[in-house]
């Protein structure tokens, strides 16, 4: 994604820039959500998952990342100084790559205890969380744009938003 984000831009203009960049790359957005208190996301057409993976995760082979027939490609938009919930999932692992904006922070753990340590991911950085691994994505000083794919572990019941186990949430969800 070829974006130069103004760090003092408002959410609506950040989303407009990302939508234009996705259209330029011929990705079809099937859902967009700007209402999340931490930022929001774009859901990309599942049929374009191989192209999405090739563009944002070219170092991974599809055979390595595709456990089931679904990858649920998304672009996450993380607002400055906002945190997603401390969470984990029963039916998916997640792969993230910072693709634009400034750095983002990530916390990960095998237990419910959230450490103080924040791993800083620069643009181009990649991280993978296993099923059940606790994690939190954190906006740092500016907007962070993250490509995400889900590795669904149950082909009969793919993961969805109901597969989020929130251990802590700044927004009371």
Automatic annotation (TrEMBL):
One Pfam family in the UniProt entry: MannoseP_isomer
Gene3D superfamilies listed in its UniProt record: Jelly Rolls (2.60.120.10)
Ranges in a coiled coil: none
Domain Mannose-6-phosphate isomerase type II C-terminal: 56-169
Name of the protein in its database record: Mannose-6-phosphate isomerase type II C-terminal domain-containing protein
């Amino acid at each position: 994604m070829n974006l130069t984000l103004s760090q003092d831009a408002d959410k609506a203009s950040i989303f407009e820039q990302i939508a234009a960049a996705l259209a330029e790359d011929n990705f079809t957005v099937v859902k967009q959500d700007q209402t999340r208190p931490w930022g929001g996301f774009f859901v990309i057409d599942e049929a374009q998952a191989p192209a999405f993976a090739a563009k944002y995760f070219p170092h991974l082979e599809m055979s390595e990342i595709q456990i089931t027939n679904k990858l649920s490609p998304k672009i996450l938009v993380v607002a400055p100084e906002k945190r997603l919930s401390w969470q984990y999932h029963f039916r998916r692992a997640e792969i993230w790559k910072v693709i634009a904006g400034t750095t983002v922070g990530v916390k990960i753990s095998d237990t419910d205890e959230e450490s103080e340590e924040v791993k800083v991911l620069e643009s181009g950085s990649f991280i993978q969380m296993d099923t059940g691994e606790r994690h939190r994505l954190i906006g740092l000083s500016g907007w962070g744009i993250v490509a995400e794919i889900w590795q669904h572990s149950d082909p009969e019941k793919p993961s969805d938003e109901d597969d989020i186990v929130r251990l802590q949430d700044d927004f009371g969800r």
